[in-house]
Design goal:
mainly beta, two-stranded antiparallel ribbon, 200 residues, 8-stranded antiparallel β-barrel
Amino acid sequence: MKRILTAALLALTLLAASAAEPRRGYRGFVDIGTDINSYMTADGSHFVDGDHWEYYGVGRRTFANATLSSSHGFQFNPHFFLGAGLMGGYSSLLDAAYIGMYAHARLDETFGRYTPYADLRVGVQFRSDGPVYISPTVGYRFNLGRKTNLNVGLGLTLTHRHDHNRDLVYYDHNGNQRFVILGSSNSLKPAFTFRIGVDF
């Protein structure tokens, strides 16, 4: 086990040492990622004595999105990139696919052999729980040879719930009730984000 860890560390060190500097001109990205968050949900609800709703099976549950995205734009110098992208994904919260578009800004730095980056994506998602999409991440760039780099990032994704009700009911593809979300309306909901991909 020690040998495997040592070999992995050595490989990462060599990749880090040879990370290529971004050059002025076109630059593209392809990424896969996941956003993970939790919601207070209920298995169902019923109206009690004509007065109020009562919930059962209440608990906090974790949900994840799986997303594929691609950005394209211009690298102005070794540090600054600006472009736009498209994404598509699946939300386990909504039991539905979604698409979106975003503006993409990125800052690459080099500190000796270390090559971190900061990334910001702002746009819209066509989802029933709200259109706003804001996703800042920080990460590390590994050179894969010539102009191709591997990017690994961690961050947050904020989505805006624009509903007018405190409690929402979602349905699966068969029309059955899945759960009720308990929470405030008109709020930005943060999700933990992990993203990995390549640029070229």
